[in-house]
Amino acid sequence: MDITELYSLFREHPIVSTDTRECPPSSIFFALRGETFNGNQFAQQALETGCTAAVVDDANIAATDSRMILVPDTLQTLQKLAAYHRHQLATPIVQITGTNGKTTTKELTAAVLAECYRVHFTQGNLNNHIGVPKTLLQLCAKHEVAVIETGANHPGEIAQLSQIVDADCGLITNVGMAHLEGFGSFEGVVRTKGELYDHLRSKIGGYIFLNADDEHLRRIADGLPAVRYGRPGQDYDVEGEVVACEPLLHLRWRVRGGNWQDVQTQLIGSYNINNVLAAAAVGTRFGVAPEQISHAIAQYMPTNSRSELRKTARNTLVVDAYNANPTSMKAALDNFRLISHPHKMVILGSMRELGEATATAHVDVAAQLRTLNAEEVWLVGEEFRPCSDGYRHFPDVEAVKEALAAAPVSGRLILIKGSNSTKLHQLPPLL
């Protein structure tokens, strides 16, 4: 079955599943493979659950049921189907990537555009080689604009995803020290994120939203039409600055030559100023009025352990535990140092996938912690063990849970941050 025949089937049954636990009636199951699983083994179960067809790449399994569709590679077929579907629709697409802040920027951008449009956007963190095609396949004719988040931890991934998404415009939030194990170096990060710019250069009418204060992004954006945003006084298309952050971000922004908009956000961290300005720049280009943009930004409530302020019965928490790398860790600690509170506490989890930079990165964080004047610092994970002198160290989150059960803390402002694999997002209910 070629891609056009498969697409005809998809048009009749426009729900795609890659998990037998989520197989609505009349959906199409794609039997994907992974390091520890083979979806082909579950294809028959998917059909029995209610799927109309199962796309497989195992000839022996395909021969067992006429509803099986044999293809050379199920993942590649899923991606080709998504790319084909994207080109059947004229929906303008904004593609977002970057080291830090891409999910928050995506959420803010979708909220801003929703003031005027029917928006389709990436749910949660489904920004990889599987999540992106599944998101595109949910795009419908009713949608007037789409915001697609793309992530990567190896060279070439953004290029591949950009080919599938084929966005009309794009945004790189920033480039920083993350996934160095896969990228090899900081320059490897820059080159990979810049693959989005490379794709847009090849597209007629392609343009970008540029954080013009970022020297690395300016360097690789040369020659691309850009809507520029950043600090005031630089003749950017959109400019803004932090008014206060005690602890929620209060800012002002404006379109070039326009009136200042004063916005009190529900975001923790002055570092979110660029995420807000990025969303404002996209909204401005798409004709959303400044007042509507400000309304959307003020109403946005962060979730998923990203820049969240949570108040419990005993403490106030700054929860930023979805991910961590040297760049985002430094920004979080810099911001936490500026927040006034008599009893500060920090719980940090290890930063993962840093390769040869692991030891130095954790030593640098430990040194920065000494500038915070925090009453207590808890470090979680083996990467922090060599530099934990003077701090309380735990091998994993389970040990932290035991400590909290034995001696609950109260009356504190607590920063919780670490790579997702350290599972610090499990701590807030205990605090």
How would the blueprint of this fold be written?
Elements: H1 3-12, E1 16-17, E2 28-30, H2 43-49, E3 53-56, H3 59-62, E4 68-70, H4 74-88, E5 93-97, H5 102-113, E6 119-121, H6 131-136, E7 145-149, H7 157-165, E8 169-172, H8 180-183, H9 186-193, H10 195-201, E9 207-211, H11 215-220, E10 226-230, E11 238-245, E12 248-255, E13 261-268, H12 273-285, H13 290-299, E14 308-311, E15 316-320, H14 326-338, E16 344-349, H15 358-369, E17 376-380, E18 392-394, H16 397-406, E19 413-417
Parallel strand pairs: 1-2, 2-3, 3-4, 5-7, 5-8, 6-7, 8-9, 9-10, 10-11, 15-19, 16-17, 16-19, 17-18
Antiparallel strand pairs: 11-12, 12-13, 14-15
Helix pairs in contact: 1-4, 5-12, 5-13, 7-10, 12-13, 14-15
Could you walk me through the main structural features you see in this protein, from its secondary elements to its overall organization?
By secondary structure, the chain is of the alpha/beta class. It folds into three domains: 3-72, Udp-n-acetylmuramoylalanyl-d-glutamate--2,6- Diaminopimelate Ligase, Chain: A, domain 1 (3-Layer(aba) Sandwich); 89-299, 3-Layer(aba) Sandwich (UDP-N-acetylmuramoyl-L-alanine:D-glutamate ligase); 308-430, Mur ligase, C-terminal domain (Protein-Tyrosine Phosphatase, Chain A), CATH 3.90.190.20. It is built from 16 helices and 19 strands. The chain has helices at 3-12, 43-49, 59-62, 74-88, 102-113, 131-136, 157-165, 180-183, 186-193, 195-201, 215-220, 273-285, 290-299, 326-338, 358-369, 397-406, and strands at residues 16-17, 28-30, 53-56, 68-70, 93-97, 119-121, 145-149, 169-172, 207-211, 226-230, 238-245, 248-255, 261-268, 308-311, 316-320, 344-349, 376-380, 392-394, 413-417. The strands form three sheets. It has a nine-stranded mixed sheet, with helices on both faces. β3, α3 (59-62) and β4 form a beta-alpha-beta unit. α5 (102-113) packs across α13, α7 packs parallel to α10 (195-201) and α14 runs parallel beside α15 (358-369).
